[in-house]
Design a protein that fits this description.
Elements: E1 2-4, H1 8-20, E2 26-28, H2 35-49, E3 55-57, H3 71-74, H4 96-106, E4 112-116, H5 120-128, H6 132-135, E5 138-142, H7 157-161, H8 163-170, E6 176-179, H9 181-187, H10 192-201, H11 204-222, H12 231-240, E7 245-251, E8 253-255, E9 265-267, E10 279-285, H13 287-298
Parallel strand pairs: 1-2, 1-4, 2-3, 4-5, 5-6, 6-10
Antiparallel strand pairs: 7-10, 8-9
Helix pairs in contact: 1-2, 1-11, 1-12, 4-5, 5-8, 9-12, 10-11
The protein binds calcium ion.
Length: 300
């Protein structure tokens, strides 16, 4: 199951996931841009690449807090302002957290969640039926930052949008692997030569990639980055091939919900709390293998 606040990097991760997994559902949650744009982006992305995976609408807001969308990062509509045609398909009936509970029963012990988004839908599914923890085999999360917040001084966007949901999911007992922001910056930034290669090669997927990520690239560069970052695809890539994890550990992690540090991932590296580890956190990923797979396999 692919849970997404569908914008620039999510759309490429949708393609990546469909090339490597059997995707049962794409579910939408509030996050990057307006909910309506995210739904349209998901439907268009699936149509563009010829996938008929059902799309379900999830929570249109975080559980408790207010958040701001990030059009400055992803473009006015989330796909770089690309004026693409209206998708023909509509979302299916059914609320994403309910669908997640249903799928966890149908594919008990087999279903994995690719959560490249705020964790609202997953938290709501868990609150409805805590039994999903035992039925879902794995939750892959793109979220959190060790120290280099991309939204506030210390918080990464997905955890910042819904810190309460992140706190609920991290403490629920799922088998979780987290891919934090810094790991993605290190391993999943599309550098100039890679961008130019994709631009000049010009496959159908390349054209999509450029349109969807051009605003993200400009934004990243305006902040001193090397290019657009693809954290969602990196998370899918790691879920598909664990050998991409060069360094990781099991730690107790929590999420701060108050004041200026709201949404910050807290990691107990030295077991200061005495609490048992609840997540695996990736610290370093294999950039060259990821890029090779993304560019020469997924986009080719
Ligand atoms: Ca995302």
């Amino acid at each position: 199951m692919f849970d997404s606040d569908t914008a620039s990097d999510d759309s490429i991760a949708i393609l990546y996931a469909h090339k490597k997994f059997r995707v049962e559902a794409v579910t939408i949650v509030s996050g990057n841009v307006s909910f309506e744009h995210q739904v349209r982006n998901a439907l268009f992305t699936l149509e563009y690449f010829g996938f008929d995976t059902p799309v379900y609408l999830g929570s249109k807001r975080p559980i408790l807090g207010l958040w701001k969308t990030a059009e400055e990062v992803h473009g006015t509509n989330g796909l770089g302002g690309w004026k693409y045609p209206d998708p023909k398909r509509k979302p299916e009936r059914g609320f994403a957290p309910d669908i997640l509970v249903d799928l966890s029963r149908r594919y008990e012990g087999e279903l994995e969640i690719l959560a490249v988004s705020p964790l609202t839908n997953i938290a709501l599914a868990y609150l409805k039926d805590p039994g999903i923890v035992e039925r879902i085999s794995k939750v892959w999360i793109m979220g959190g930052a060790f120290y280099q917040g991309n939204t506030t001084m210390s918080a990464e966007f997905n955890f910042w949008v819904d810190p309460e949901a992140a706190k609920i999911v991290l403490s629920a007992g799922f088998d979780i692997t987290i891919v934090p922001w810094e790991v993605a910056v290190d391993a999943a930034t599309i550098k100039d030569d890679e961008w130019t290669y994709i631009l000049e090669r010009g496959t159908q997927a390349d054209k999509f990639f450029i349109q969807a990520n051009k605003v993200s690239r400009e934004y990243s560069k305006s902040k001193g980055g090397g290019g657009c970052v693809q954290p969602d695809s990196l998370t899918v890539a790691i879920a598909n091939d664990r050998r991409l994890v060069l360094e990781s550990g099991m730690w107790y992690a929590d999420v701060e919900t108050c004041s200026t540090a709201r949404g910050t991932m807290l990691v107990d590296f030295y077991s200061n709390t005495g609490k048992a580890p609840n997540v695996e956190i990736v610290r370093k990923a294999d950039r060259s293998t990821f890029m090779k797979t993304l560019i020469e396999d997924v986009l080719a």
